[in-house]
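Lecture notes, unit on protein representations.

Consider one protein chain, 491 amino acids long.
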Amino acid sequence: MLRRLVSVLAGVLGAAAALALPATAGNPLGGLELLKDYEARRSSSSDPDWHNGNADARPIEPGETLVIADLEGPGRIVHIWNTVAAQDRWYSRLLVLRMYWDGEKEPSVEVPLGDFFAAGHGMDVPVNSLPVRVTSEGRARNCYWPMPFRKSARITVTNEGKGRVNAFYYYVDWQKLKSLPKDTAYFHAQYRQQVPCQPGGKNYVILEAEGRGHYVGTVQSVRLNEPGWYGEGDDFFFIDGEQEPSLRGTGTEDYFCDAWGFRKFDGLYYGLPIWEGYNTGDRSTVYRWHIPDPIPFRKSLRVEIEHKGSRDNVSGFIERYDDFYTVAYWYQTEPHKPFPPLPPARERVPYDEAQIKELDLFLEGAQAEPKEALRTQEGFGRGGKQVFFTPAQSGGSFTLKIPVAEAGSYNAILFATCSWDYGIYQISLGGQAAGGPRDFYSGGTGTRELNLGRFELPAGEVELSFRNAGKNPDSKGYFLGVDGILLRKLK
């Protein structure tokens, strides 16, 4: 009898231990066979006429807000999915995701949609991590952060762009619970940016939080305003008001768990879904999830990172003035400190498209060899006309004169087409080569945005030149089509 009692007690204690251990402590499938004491619920964009209809999305007009979840607790959100068809190019920076717990007036989550799912700069790219996974070439967004609430949960998406969201599809999967443990904390996420980073030794602040909780993740997006390496800046975590940070880092790539620079990769707890390089205008996004190593705080937390690195390919530890965009993720129990105002939509996007100069407007007075190969072509590129160069053999060239309003440093971005009969061209701006030759060949006709780099330009007219340097072996010709150029003045 005693042996049987001990066996039963051991079984009960084993089951209790299995329930107490989080899934991430061992086998993620551990405990899946145990019966669940909650009700599975979902808020989705399903057609109200679910028997016969297939209108399973919702539009969002400019300036309007869509409520994607309005839930009564206690409960816990366990999965959010969405995909979007929108008119704005950078819709994922212009759509703002907000979450409110237990009737709070100010959101606990306020982040542009793409940045929340670890893809910055308004870009659609795949992400493959444990709490966030994005597929369909960056268009199918999923997150698995647990989001508990006691009384209510309200999730909204606001369209702060100029174009219409034609279709917003969504799932919000959640569990209706009987109760939550007393020490349950609420999920938070906050977006910040500095364009560019502040001079004078002022570190970039990722988060300033007050209350009790733990920090669980960082997403950092960067756009370079000069050539070189931005990632020597150290990370600092000031816990509970301390003057000297308990956690001090050794470099940006080290904090994000990589080393010796960056390159594109993904992983469960850290990854780099966007990496374009070391030239002016190049963009990156990197994430780190503190899931095995959350950082607790009882009163407050301040998270900083330096903006230091090398300049002009010279090794060093100097202050840089690149554009930083971040998302901080954390849990806390008490009402959170008010968030800083979200930057206006026009300040979150990479550039103002109205500032793109249409190159066909500068065709008069252009120089070309052979001259008869230079003309315009309708309906290519960004729409309207493009400058079209059709030499019959290699070695041709043409030059346009582009106005520059004031002297200064500029990041030049070229908008061009690529096709099956296009050649390789060396590009120069203001007499300065824009790197090496660029190959405009593609198996099918499409558009291309080329970051030409940083240029010191005088006021007045400057020459934009294209010189043919041969062709791809698979190309059928030496043609070139260029549509527009953006000169982004660097601060």
